[in-house]
């Protein structure tokens, strides 16, 4: 097991693929040996971003996306065939990056967390850690993002404090167990399969 504390001052910023906003990039991975780290070489990305006005989402063929509101409320994603309800904070929605989506904001701007992965290269999960309790972690990469305030977790027999806005990156070579001891966090999990 390897753990790394990622601090907000080390996060990077990058434009949305369609140029409509700015991501705060918390962690990502690209294909080994890729000459440029861009959307074409992306394996997965964990990021937060504000959505301040209704508008279209970026077209991302071959990318699976998970998203949840962590600030504000009232977000609805609309496509020609489906609606994704994120009106309540910490509700996870899953959709394909090639789906034509337009946002609707029912109660003003929101802050969201996105976990994206190249389809066929990685499997992803995104959920909220809101109540103390034990949960299984598979071998892979896990990101515990302390959304606002400090939180603490237990990982196996070890205890970790994650400062507000920070992220604990956990790299596991075998399954383990995680328990939230205090606070509120978002857990993103990635398993490379391709």
TrEMBL record:
InterPro entries: RmlC-like_jellyroll, RmlC_Cupin_sf, Uncharacterised_HutD/Ves
Domain of life: Bacteria
UniProt-listed SUPFAM superfamilies: RmlC-like cupins
Descriptive protein name: HutD family protein
């Amino acid at each position: 097991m390897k753990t790394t504390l990622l601090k907000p001052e080390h996060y990077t910023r990058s434009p949305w693929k369609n140029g409509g906003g700015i991501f705060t990039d918390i962690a990502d991975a690209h294909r080994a040996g890729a000459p440029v780290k861009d959307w074409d070489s992306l394996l997965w990305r964990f990021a937060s971003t504000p959505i301040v006005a209704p508008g279209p989402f970026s077209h991302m063929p071959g990318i699976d996306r998970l998203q949840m509101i962590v600030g504000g409320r009232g977000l609805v994603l609309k496509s020609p065939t489906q609606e994704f309800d994120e009106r309540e904070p910490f509700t996870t929605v899953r959709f394909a990056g090639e789906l034509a989506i337009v946002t609707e904001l029912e109660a003003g701007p929101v802050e969201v967390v996105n976990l994206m992965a190249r389809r066929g290269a990685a499997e992803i999960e995104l959920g909220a850690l809101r109540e103390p309790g034990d949960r299984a972690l598979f071998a892979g990469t896990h990101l515990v993002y302390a959304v606002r305030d400090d939180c603490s977790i237990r990982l196996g027999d070890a205890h970790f404090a994650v400062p507000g806005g920070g992220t604990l990156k956990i790299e596991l070579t075998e399954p383990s167990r995680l328990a939230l001891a205090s606070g509120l966090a978002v857990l993103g999990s990635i398993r490379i399969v391709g």
